[in-house]
Write a structure and sequence with these properties.
By secondary structure, the protein is mainly alpha-helical. It has nine helices and three strands. InterPro entries: Apaf_helical, NB-ARC, P-loop_NTPase.
Length: 178
């Protein structure tokens, strides 16, 4: 991909972010979206940060009202950063249900969503989405050269430089392919 997850990881692991938020949660959502499972995973992640025992509610019920109530209580007043990585689901009703449990979080709480789907970004509301673009050929070549050649110097191997530039064209600006 273009680096959405990598960028989110850099944010998540930044020392300033760690110091700013009382709680940080990273959840990989992917294609198989299950609201109950996502809510339980959120509860378990929050509980593991603040409690010595994992929440019993999330382990014994699939009742969404109970799960949401439990999550709301656990987040109440805590400033959190929640990263939802690789979101595909476009069902606004499910996302509204999930978000309702998050509103008790402290002032300044943030939710970051990575997705390939612009519709998902719009569903989440909030701030204007930040779109990552593919790298231009020059930037892609620079990255490739840096990793492929000693000291990034391709001049010592002109034949390999030609092959390298052909490889870069095939990558179509996707840094993850490097």
């Amino acid at each position: 991909g273009v680096g959405k997850t990598t960028l989110a990881q850099l944010v998540y692991n930044d020392t300033r972010i760690k110091n700013h938020f009382q709680l940080r949660v990273w959840l990989c959502v992917s294609e198989n979206f299950d609201l109950t499972k996502l809510t339980k995973e959120t509860i378990e992640s929050v509980a593991s940060e603040f409690e010595s025992v994992v929440s019993w509610v999330s382990s014994v019920t699939t009742n969404m009202n109970l799960l949401q109530e439990d999550l709301s209580k656990k987040l109440e007043g805590k400033r959190f950063l929640l990263i939802l990585d690789d979101v595909w689901n476009e069902d606004p009703e499910k996302w509204d249900t999930y978000r309702r449990a998050l509103v008790t979080g402290g002032k300044g709480s943030r939710i970051v969503v990575t997705t390939r789907n612009k519709n998902v970004g719009n569903l989440m509301g909030g701030v204007t989405p930040y779109y990552l673009n593919q790298l231009c050929d020059n930037d892609c070549w620079y990255l490739f050269r840096t990793y492929a050649f000693v000291d990034g110097n391709s001049n010592a191997h002109p034949n390999l430089e030609i092959i390298g530039k052909e490889i870069v064209k095939k990558l179509k600006g996707l840094p993850l392919a490097l």
